[in-house]
Amino acid sequence: MPSSAVISDREFVLPPYGRRIILSSVSSDSHTWNLVHLQLLLEEWGHEVHNLGACVPDDLVLRECRGHRPDLVVISSVNGHGFLDGRRLITRLRREPDLVQLPVVIGGKLGTDGAAGGAHGPALRAAGFTAVFEGDAAIEEFRAYLRRAPAPAQGRPTAVAPSGPHALAVAAV
Ligand code: B12
């Protein structure tokens, strides 16, 4: 299947090293092996993962974002409701002034057409996701996304992008 990653040109910056990541599913999705697999991959790539698990209510995601102050939020869904649940979640999250610039990506089987999906990127990005990963190349593209970043100017960059023009920036791990 061709690439279907849709990555925002919004002003988000990720710190260029092992990041603090919140991993979560959406409220309706009870699948767990997707989360286990993603956690293992992310940890193997050098990141610290706080896995919220399956069937996570929107309120809890927002609360954890505030309490945990992640560099990145990764939403995974495979039950077919990821598009609707994800759009509702990100709309809610982007309404919060303190979370408006937090990088949040989503991936998996986001519609009811299973692995044949891949058309949800533009709408989910328009709703506020930083990047959307669907299809066979999702993991590969996600890894490439995590690796892209300029060298840090100095010190630990903030989780929230500072104001001013800069492209999506993620570093090699
Ligand atoms: C096991 C399973 C279940 C188990 C889950 C048990 C558990 N504890 O996880 C049970 C029986 C509970 C279940 C229930 C349902 N399931 Co189910 N399930 C599966 C099955 C067979 C395997 C899923 C799995 O574990 N895969 C292994 C993991 C490692 O792979 P993965 O899930 O694909 O995740 C990978 C990628 O998707 C990707 N990815 C996922 N998220 C993200 C995020 C990012 C950022 C990136 C980059 C990549 C990424 O990377 C992951 C790791 O490689 C799949 C079919 C299949 N072969 O995939 C159906 C499947 C996911 N289920 C499906 C459905 C429809 C359901 C039900 C709605 C059925 C029903 N009518 O009740 C319910 C939903 C329940 C709910 N509330 O969510 C459909 C979804 C259809 C769709 N999206 O178009 C599938 C695809 C089956 C099918 N072909 O129809 N299911």
TrEMBL record:
InterPro entries, alphabetized: Cobalamin-bd, Cobalamin-bd_sf
Gene3D superfamilies the UniProt entry points to: Cobalamin-binding domain
PROSITE patterns: B12_BINDING
Coiled coil segments of this chain: none
Domain B12-binding: 18-153
Protein name: B12-binding domain-containing protein
Organism: Streptomyces incarnatus
